[in-house]
Amino acid sequence: MDQQRHPAAKVFIREIIEGELIQDPEQGLFLYTKIGEKLGRVNLLGAILHKEKIGSIANVLVDDGTAKIVVRFFEENSALNGLEVGSPVIIIGKVREYNEERYVSPDLIRGISPLWLKARRLELLAEKKDRLQENTLEQEQKIELNKMELRKEEEPKSKSTASKIAASPRTSENTTPEPAEIETEEIEEMIKLPETVGLPFQRILGIIKELDNGDGARIDDIIEKSPLKETEDLLQKMLEKGEIFQITSGKVKVL
């Protein structure tokens, strides 16, 4: 029998990296996030940092500004042909792990407008805060219920019996992790996008602006300062798209 096809939940890559993978005997492998979400499939947006092919396997490294993850294709996928380093993409798939390396096995990958990355960030920040508040309320209610049960049982029972009751909520039958106790400020820190992190093109633009004293930025200086291996290729693509222009030989400037 085929396992149920789960809806794809929108997530930041960092949530995938920091979550816990647990095998459900009936429903398959799930990712449990730090704020208590149980995800069978994920929906993420990011930019391609690197592509490689080893035999029939293709690996695509994707970055959304919170973390990086490999998207692994075990079969030929024509959608990859039109996607290059720097391309913003949407990926829907399942989270897997092999030899302690976590990756996404995709059902879909498709190019998107860079504007969707900013829209997704704002959408998820709001959703995660709401989810955190719901979890906090549920935990408080659970604690109060446990206290009420203990008070009822403590009158006729001995202390040892009451201790067993107090421990009963954490039975070995419950394999679902309890949501972590995370404050609102912590979740903002956990999933925020640093100003210096984003699309590869945005990183390069930031470096150019930083190095430009008015007469452009030297290409050699940009390549030296950039942490991206594909900086030279990205600069060429940005020139072709008109995002930057070559003001003099060896120097570029942001439009």
The poorly predicted ranges are 161-173, 191-198
CATH topology of the largest domain: OB fold (Dihydrolipoamide Acetyltransferase, E2P)
Q: Roughly what percent helix?
A: 25-40%
In N-to-C order, the SSE pattern is: EHEEEEEEEEHHHHEHHEE
| Tally of individual helices | 7
Distance between the termini: 57 Å
Strand order of the largest sheet: 5-6-7-9-8
- If you average the pLDDT, what whole number results? 78
Describe the largest sheet: 5 strands, mixed, barrel
- What is the count of β-strands? 12
Radius of gyration: 24 Å
- CA-based shape: elongated
CATH homologous superfamily name of the largest domain? Nucleic acid-binding proteins
The percent range for strand residues is 25-35%
Give the tally of structural domains.
Answer: 3
Quaternary organisation of the protein chains: single chain
**CATH classification class of the largest domain:** Mainly Beta
**Which CATH architecture of the largest domain would you pick?**
Beta Barrel
- The SS-based structural class is alpha+beta
Q: Helices and strands in order, then pairings?
A:
Layout lengths: L7 E3 L2 H6 L1 E5 L3 E5 L5 E2 L1 E14 L2 E7 L4 E6 L14 E11 L2 E11 L3 H40 L4 H9 L16 H8 L8 H12 L5 E2 H7 L5 H11 L2 E5 L2 E4 L1
Parallel strand pairs: 1-5, 7-9
Antiparallel strand pairs: 2-3, 3-4, 5-6, 5-8, 6-7, 8-9, 10-12, 11-12
Helix pairs in contact: 2-3, 2-4
What does this structure look like?
- This protein has 255 residues and is of the alpha+beta class.
- The protein has helices spanning 13-18, 115-154, 159-167, 184-191, 200-211, 219-225, 231-241; strands spanning 8-10, 20-24, 28-32, 38-39, 41-54, 57-63, 68-73, 88-98, 101-111, 217-218, 244-248, 251-254.
- Strands 5-6-7-9-8 form a five-stranded mixed barrel. Strands 2-3-4 form a three-stranded antiparallel beta sheet. It has a three-stranded antiparallel beta sheet with strand order 10-12-11.
- The N and C termini lie far apart (57 Å).
